[in-house]
Design goal:
YbaK protein; 4 helices; 5-stranded mixed β-sheet; single chain; 21% helix; alpha+beta; 10 strands
Length: 164
């Protein structure tokens, strides 16, 4: 692990600092950035590694919500996220849409550094962990953080949004 936040995407660094989030930076090799490969290579438990998923709320104009789930669960968009946002017509944002909205590299997208005003739903199971690993905004870094620290992000709330 590294205390060197310069390895993180600039948007992630800025948000960690402005929100006062205590975190540690982790270096990873780009070819091991995807969750399953990251866990295997660096020997992290899947329950400790989280994925940020952008969901499209199909209103006119479109709205977006960022969802954080542990990698040993899956996001329940059609039921639980729909209930949390009180709207039924939802879909996963495409990779291109996610990259454009976040300004981050696919494989490193994280809820830390997303545009202000985007609601953030953190699955309740994430909060059960002492620390979780998130993307660093690029494919060569990750962030380790106490999940309670994520509630310092504007628009962040805990919800039951994962299945299994």
């Amino acid at each position: 692990m590294s205390e060197d936040f310069s390895i993180l995407h600039p948007l992630v660094r800025e948000k960690l600092e402005t929100a006062g989030i205590a975190a540690r930076a982790i270096t990873c090799e780009a070819e091991f950035a995807d969750t399953a490969q990251f866990c295997a290579r660096y020997q992290f438990e899947p329950a400790d590694v989280c994925n940020t998923i952008i969901v499209v709320i199909k209103k006119n104009p479109k709205e977006y919500v960022a969802c954080l789930v542990r990698s040993d669960t899956r996001l329940d968009v059609n039921h639980k996220v729909a209930a949390a946002v009180a709207f039924k017509r939802l879909s996963f944002a495409s990779g291109e849409e996610t990259a454009q909205l976040s300004g981050m590299e696919i494989g490193g997208v994280t809820l830390v550094g997303l545009p202000d005003g985007m609601p953030i739903l953190i699955d309740r199971r994430v909060m059960e962990r002492d620390a979780v690993i998130l993307g660093g905004g690029n494919r060569t870094s990750k962030v380790r953080v106490d999940p309670k620290e994520l509630l310092k992000l504007p628009g962040a709330s805990v919800a039951d949004i994962a299945a299994g």
